[in-house]
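Try it yourself: sequence plus 5-O-phosphono-beta-D-ribofuranosylamine, in.
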Amino acid sequence: MARPAKLRVGVLISGRGSNLQALIDACAAPDFPAEIVLVVSNVAGAIGLQRAAAAGIATALIRHQDHSGRDAFDEAVDRQLRRADVALVCLAGFMRLLGAPMVARWHGHMINIHPSLLPCFIGLHSHAQALAAGVTLHGCTVHYVTPALDAGPIIAQAAVPVLPDDDEERLAARVLAAEHRLYPLALKLIASGTAQAATPESVLFNPAP
Ligand code: GRF
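Structure, out:
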């Protein structure tokens, strides 16, 4: 019997791309319900572009400096995603804020991974924020993207302990290892239809088929 069509995914990156690699590795399993059809970077020389090329995935470099403003940059990214017939966008270390029109266009079809247990510690330096707050539990979150920063409906979270002798680097490494497990899991939940955006504020979880 023919396999069901896989969800076509575009990944937006700006750098190292270790989460991209985790998604690439997950998608390599024949029964994984998603495939990455395009990787877009806004930074030339991003290591993630090499990871994509090594996996035989189409890449596009869209430098924000080459565009007149946020809207023009967003439109160039949007054009590439549509040309590749992308159905879901995964932000994976994409260090560029997208404008409200772009976020609205992909509403319910764009997700992000953030290195904290949201709603705690939004924005940059989440590990330093966690250490400064003295929490004993930290982690990462995959959520739908909405106009407000790191505030969209939560799809999945993974927690890690904060240990007494942690510094930012040690804590970041522990969270990153959890990210690499969580992002593929969240993508699988969406691609299999188990999780979907219900309203701008919530996620609907369907029983696994
Ligand atoms: C990750 O910690 C991710 O949560 C954050 O940026 C970092 C990207 O790392 N948004 P990588 O490029 O996936 O290695």
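One thing you can check immediately is this: Helices lie at 18-27, 47-54, 70-83, 100-105, 126-133, 168-191.
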